[in-house]
Amino acid sequence: MGKIDNQGNWEKIQKSVQETERLMGQKKYNLSMIKARQTMEFMVKLQCDKAGIIESTTDQMIRDLYEEKVISKSTAEHYLQILSIGNKATKEGDNSAYNANQAYHVLSQEIYSFVDSDKASKPRRSTATRQQQSQQTQSRKRQSSSSSSARSSKSSRSSKNAGLNTDDLIKLFIPIVLVIILIFLIKVLTPDKDPTSETTTPEAQVTTTTEAEVTTEAVPEVPTETAAQVIYKTTTTLNVRSGPSIETDRIGKLDPDQTVNFVRDHDDFWAVILYNDQEAYVAKEYLTVAAE
């Protein structure tokens, strides 16, 4: 599946996910599960249209997408899980907060896979076409190999026919002669070492070593700088809760683009922050690293 080209479809999916969360916040769990299923069905239909899969029942379209390798096994299982929860809410009137929370988090996870997937949904080529293209490729390779062998053979014959002439020999020996002359001049011009200087050298080395040791001991240690703490901001209006679940009490709300005092990750969906000098929980997907 390629990246989404229709900006309107992506905005519709985002609004549907936000509506699912809003219904959960209002404790309308039944409606939230139904909305999650509708959002998933919309995503499945878009992928079927791009892959050329005939529209049928939702569960069959999900299996067709998996068989055509448009979606992964994990994504197919998540889609079927949202479908099952949504059907139970529609047919049996299920109003479970746990099921609503499961459907919402699975849906939130899959919308990013839906956007970031790089599998191209193009019609498959027939076997005969692939075989024909393979034969053409092999033929081109043989022709290229024959041409290279011919050029190599001609080059080899040309090299054998060409001998070293007098000018080539002169060019070869000139650098060697220059190196020999240079070595001779260096030996002639370099003065002999003074024996007195050789005698006093060890003392100078001992003195230098002692001074170096004293200097090293006097150097104070420089404290290392601590790593800069990562700063996070909210991407939208975000509820602050007392626990890592939408069933826990909401103890506050953060405005969009507000800096939060991030403490640690709780799990894949919740983060711990400091709110009014106490630890609280917010949804991780609505936090982003603030630009320096």
Keywords:
292 residues, alpha+beta, Four Helix Bundle (Hemerythrin (Met), subunit A), two-stranded antiparallel sheet, 7 strands
Tell me what you see in this structure.
By secondary structure, this protein is α+β, with helices and mostly antiparallel strands. Among the domains are: 7-116, Four Helix Bundle (Hemerythrin (Met), subunit A); 232-289, Roll (SH3 type barrels), CATH 2.30.30. The protein has helices spanning 7-25, 29-51, 58-67, 73-92, 97-116, 127-161, 166-189, 195-218; strands at 232-234, 238-241, 250-254, 259-265, 270-275, 278-283, 287-289. The strands form 2 sheets. Strands 6-5-4-1-7 form a 5-stranded antiparallel beta sheet, with no helix packed on it. Strands 2-3 form a two-stranded antiparallel sheet. A hairpin with a 4-residue loop joins strand 4 (259-265) and strand 5. The longest helix has 35 residues, at 127-161. It is flat.
